[in-house]
Amino acid sequence: MDFVNIVGLAAGTLTTIAFLPQMLQTWKTKSAKDVSFAMLITFMTGLFLWFIYGIMLGATPIILANGTTLFFNLIILGLKVKYK
Asked: Which of 84, 59, 62, 70 is CA-nearest to residue 23?
């Protein structure tokens, strides 16, 4: 694995992990009132486009990071709808 991919994987790991506390807090408190629906939809649209871009480039770090972050945000969105 080359240095560029290592940097990409490290960046993707950190930005993906950043959403775990929000997801766990929402799950634990059963409340997502402080999470903006518009922000989630906008952010998830961006993640989806980054994911597609990564596929088009064949860039594993982009695919993994944005696919995982999109999955976490789908969970947050689901919890927001469930606990509304």
From this structure: 70
Question: Which domain, by its residues, includes 62?
Answer: 1-81
Q: What is the pTM of this model?
A: 0.85
Give every residue of the chain whose pLDDT is below 70, as ranges. none
d(CA 20, CA 24): 6
Number of folded domains that form the chain? 1
Longest dimension (CA), the chain: 45
How much is the pLDDT for 84? Answer: 78
Look up the CATH number of the domain holding residue 49.
1.20.1280.290
